Amino acid sequence: MAVILCDLDTGLEMYTVPSKFRYLLENKFQDCKFIYNSDVAKSHNNEVDIYWGNHLPIDFLERYPRVKWIHFGSVGIDRFKLIKNKDKKSVLVTNSNDSVTNGMHSHLLYQIFYLLRQGYLINKIRNNKKLTRKEFDLNFKKIINVEDLRILIVGYGNIGKRLGETLLLMGAKVTGIATTEKILENKIQIYKLDKLETLAKDHNLIVGLLPYNSNLEKVFNYKIFDNMPFNSYFINNGRSSHVNENDLCIALDKNLSAAALDVFAYCNQGPSKDLYEKENLLITPHVGAVDPSYWSKQRLLFEFNLKCFLNNKLDKMKNICNKVT
């Protein structure tokens, strides 16, 4: 009997396996034992074979030494990368790539047009009971129509590609940054990250969608912000560690018209006072991936991979992130 430990039991809709899906999985895989525990960091079990969740602790393989497959309910596998255990090379890792693309795509569009159409100013003058054209006119020159948008998407993966294609159809000029330099069929130019500082000069919106990498810490800093044109915009939905928040706060008082963050330092505690006090900063509590259709896709993915794993058809599993040795 395979024992499956799942920490997707937080009480939040997006991060709790629905009861109907639990029933379907347990009924279909009767030879498996499902354990739901939202805090795997405070327990241990020598009988767990499979982990399914998002909150993998650094000492996970010490606590659950028998685990042979780790499946993340998210795209990022940051927590696995941080594990130092010598046995990690023998553990198969899969993620939920593309299961959050729709939510992230929609959230990015919300952020972009909130900024370009001065949503932050509208909130301010509404709260001050001065919701008039005269007050709105103060930001007249900060408005950017999508046809005049020059967007640089830093991290041109599935989500970046989807966003780029949408905005291109709407008339924006789109440029991307990824690991390989190339020109796509739709004529979008993709550069490497070492061109970021130079490219910042020619774009009035930069969107960060980079994955976790210790080498990317504070890659968005004063060098990038100072190079951006006056009255430009910045969005980060990648990792909070990618942004120097102090530099961003300074830039919001200088050449940046506004910015949006879905991730920030100490997400569980809320943003810092400096970020809270910026009226031209849209902050959302790490909800960019929220999508009501997530669980339907997640169940099908996990069910398919579980069937492959149990039948020792590891090469058929979807979204494999590492090579097992």
Question: Oligomerization state of this entry?
Answer: single chain
Q: Which topology of the largest domain does CATH recognise?
A: Rossmann fold
**Contiguous runs where pLDDT drops below 50 for at least 5 residues:** none
Kindly provide the name of the CATH class of the largest domain: Alpha Beta
Radius of gyration: 22 Å
Distance between the termini: 24 Å
Q: Tally the helices: what do you get?
A: 12
Throw out a few tags for this protein:
325 residues, 30% helix, Rossmann fold, 8-stranded mixed β-sheet, 12 helices, alpha/beta, 5-stranded parallel β-sheet
Question: Can you give a write-up of this model?
Answer:
The protein has 325 residues and is of the alpha/beta class. The chain has two domains: 2-99 and 291-316, 3-Layer(aba) Sandwich (Rossmann fold); 101-283, NAD(P)-binding Rossmann-like Domain (Rossmann fold, 3-Layer(aba) Sandwich), CATH 3.40.50. It is 30% helix and 17% strand. It has twelve helices and 13 strands. The chain has helices spanning 19-28, 60-63, 78-81, 101-116, 119-127, 133-136, 158-169, 196-199, 222-227, 245-251, 273-276, 294-310, and strands at 2-6, 32-36, 50-53, 69-72, 92-94, 150-154, 173-177, 182-183, 189-191, 205-208, 232-236, 256-261, 281-283. The strands form two sheets. It has an eight-stranded mixed sheet, with helices on one face. A five-stranded parallel sheet has the order 2-1-3-4-5, with helices on one face. The longest helix has 17 residues, at 294-310. The two termini are 24 Å apart. The mean pLDDT is 94.
